[in-house]
């Protein structure tokens, strides 16, 4: 299973069994084709249990997303003392590696499809706003740490994190919706930005 949802490999209770079934059906069918019946096909218990806990597929999918976000917040706490310049390089590698940070291509494609629902569904908009804030918070922390460590220039951490967040979303969408690969050119230009506008040593020597 995808590393971001590996906590569902061995469900500990009925809710996690339902969420694992949701994950399996979601990655196979995507948002448009997923149904309660298709989730039930992956669920080892009675279909009636699904309706006992959820009103429909959107309620179930939103609970699944909330569960994933809760797990991410628990598993990725802010850790002081890490070299911010090395950390930001790891972030960039993840951004431009196809399938990262989610390694399952089917799941990545389904998540992009699901994000599109936020355009007309306030519940999904609220969720993806929260996930974007979660990601931005961590990048902002790295930027602030780098400024304190003297490896980053005196940039605005919030604005820089916002740029990274927009790149995250755009790259994820590009990777699963287009056959034309522009990632190499995009990475080259983004790394130039990081060298000239963020890293202090590179800026001092330019």
From TrEMBL:
Give TM segment ranges.
none
Work out whether the entry's keyword set contains Iron-sulfur: no
Which InterPro entries would you find in this protein's record?
Answer: BetI_C, Homeodomain-like_sf, HTH-type_TetR-like_transc_reg, HTH_TetR, Tet_transcr_reg_TetR-rel_C_sf
What Gene3D superfamilies does the record point to?
Tetracycline Repressor, domain 2
Which sections of the sequence are annotated for DNA binding? 35-54
Q: Which Pfam families does the entry mention?
A: TetR_C_6, TetR_N
Q: Name one GO molecular function term.
A: DNA binding
Assigned keywords, A-Z: DNA-binding, Repressor, Transcription, Transcription regulation
PANTHER family for this protein: HTH-TYPE TRANSCRIPTIONAL REPRESSOR SCO4008, TRANSCRIPTIONAL REPRESSOR
What's the protein name?
TetR/AcrR family transcriptional regulator
